[in-house]
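pls read this protein:
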Amino acid sequence: MQKPLTLTLSNNISERIQKLAEQRREDMIAVVERILDEALPESFDDQAWIDLAEPDAAADQEMQAYIELHPKLKEDFLGQYVAIYQGKMIDHDMDRRALYTRIVARHPNQFVWLSKVEEEPLRTLLFRSPRFDGSR
């Protein structure tokens, strides 16, 4: 069964979906449905759903360490990706994927802060709120 849903997306997201649909030779709606299906849990019981609003002590600790280390990281590693674990920089690389692969191999199931060292420690992101029109 299908239920009509009107969804307004930013041009950026719409273009990315269109490119992905073209690459996969699929309809844009099918691509959006697949992305949502993979992202949403089957059920919303307490075990399946992670509340992203919950505080995460490990992430907060590593973020604070990154902010404190940022002035020195900026001097030495501007433009590179760094990994922060237990308050220390443990690795760096120009290639994000290569760094990620090494970190996952060395620290499975552990939170490690990965970030590109830029002029400011944390980037300010602005999001437009999607509007779902389920009235149809």
Notes: The chain has a mean pLDDT of 85. DSSP finds four helices and five strands in the chain. The first strand starts at residue 6 and ends at 8.
